[in-house]
Specification:
Elements lengths: L1 H19 L17 H10 L20 H8 L7 E3 L16 E6 L11 E5 L9 E3 L19 E2 L2 E2 L11 E9 H4 L10 E2 L1 H11 L8 E5 L2 H8 L10 E2 L3 H8 L3 E4 L16 H9 L4 E3 L4 H10 L3 E6 L9 E3 L3 E3 L1
Parallel strand pairs: 7-9, 8-10, 9-11, 11-12
Antiparallel strand pairs: 1-15, 2-3, 4-12, 4-14, 5-6, 7-13, 13-15
Bound molecules: acetylphosphate.
Length: 335
């Protein structure tokens, strides 16, 4: 009995010591990125195409995969009714090569009035590496064509005649799987330029006990915001962790409806000759999958880890702007 108690004490001391050792911030340097030629990328663009799948005039793309049954399945994941935002606070100074979110007060409460109000004006050029936003299907063009083969001439200075974000005004409600890749590797954030391959996604599925299915949203955490807290802003284009283009066929096989991340989805530099953001162009143009860029999944990652549950209901309500190329959004996770 005494031996047993000593053993327990020693184990407890070891556990305390282990928890006192901080998790490494980033991973040690990895293998060089897999290089792809432009021809290899073009072949994948053809292979993953959803053009024509939902009709020649389809404007919804992969959101067609979110059926009423899929929404009911996602709603059934709500057990506690706890909601966590996936948005980063609007960034009001120009960083990461993106313009600032402009917040201007246009009315202040009056000192000598019993009843008054305040009001403000927002102005945001939301595409880029900073504000949390949704990329609509008219946002990206590849070799003159948008999703479903619509020509880029459909986009004019008045907005997009096809694939405008207003097509998504009934909102996106589906099951979301958080893929916490730093957690998979036991670090706080991934090293700059670290590619994520399908093997990483499947290793995470095994570790988390979850499988990405048709109509799901996939949210990739690279630890971008933890890295920024530790290291400050960096040149995003020169070294950011994210998905390698090799993940495109995987996303197509799983038939995902939405993909998001805490940065711009792609590993940077991408490793694909002549294509800066191949995953971006692949999912939007070929697959018709809208993207959630610059999400802040830090709080959701904590919420998921404390429940040991990495799937939840995702709710996104883009602005109903006719001909718009996307929308600033505040995506919500509900457990
Ligand atoms: C980025 O490329 C980061 O943003 P967007 O797709 O909105 O242009």
């Amino acid at each position: 009995m005494k031996v047993h108690a000593t053993f327990l004490l020693a184990s407890a001391a070891l556990a305390v010591l282990a928890s006192a050792v901080p998790a490494p911030t980033a991973e040690p340097p990895t293998q060089p990125i897999k290089r792809w030629t432009r021809a290899e990328f073009d072949a994948v663009m053809t292979r993953i195409s959803n053009w024509g799948r939902w009709g020649q005039d389809d404007q919804l793309g992969a959101l067609n995969l979110i059926t009423p049954e899929k929404r009911r399945q996602a709603a059934a994941l709500v057990r506690e009714g706890v909601t966590v935002s996936l948005a980063h606070l609007a960034i009001k100074e120009p960083v990461d090569d993106s313009p600032a979110f402009v917040h201007r007060m246009v009315e202040l409460p009056k000192r000598d009035a019993e009843i008054s109000s305040s009001a403000d004006e927002y102005s945001v050029q939301y595409h880029g590496f900073t504000q949390t936003h949704l990329d609509g299907l008219c946002h990206l063009v590849y070799r003159g064509k948008m999703y479903n083969g619509f020509t880029q001439d459909e986009v004019t200075s008045r907005g997009a005649r096809k694939l405008g974000v207003q097509a998504f005004r009934n909102g996106i409600l589906t099951r979301c799987v958080l893929m916490d890749i730093p957690r998979l590797h036991g670090v706080r954030y991934l090293e700059g330029g670290r590619p994520i391959y399908p093997e990483d996604l499947e290793a995470w599925e095994r570790q988390a006990g979850v499988k990405v299915e048709r109509g799901d949203a996939v949210l990739i955490r690279t630890g971008r915001w933890a890295r920024r807290q530790q290291e400050g802003p960096w040149d995003i284009m020169k070294g950011s962790a994210g998905l390698h283009a090799a993940c495109l066929p995987w996303l197509k096989e799983r038939d995902v409806a939405v993909v998001g991340s805490d940065l711009a989805l792609d590993v940077l530099p991408s490793g694909v000759d002549g294509v800066v953001l191949p995953v971006h162009w692949g999912v939007v143009v070929a697959m018709g999958v809208p993207i959630l860029d610059n999400c802040d999944p830090e709080a959701v990652a904590e919420a998921a880890a404390s429940r040991r549950r990495w799937s939840f209901l995702l709710t996104v309500a883009p602005l109903a702007v006719e001909g718009g190329t996307g929308s600033p959004v505040n995506p919500l996770a509900t457990f």
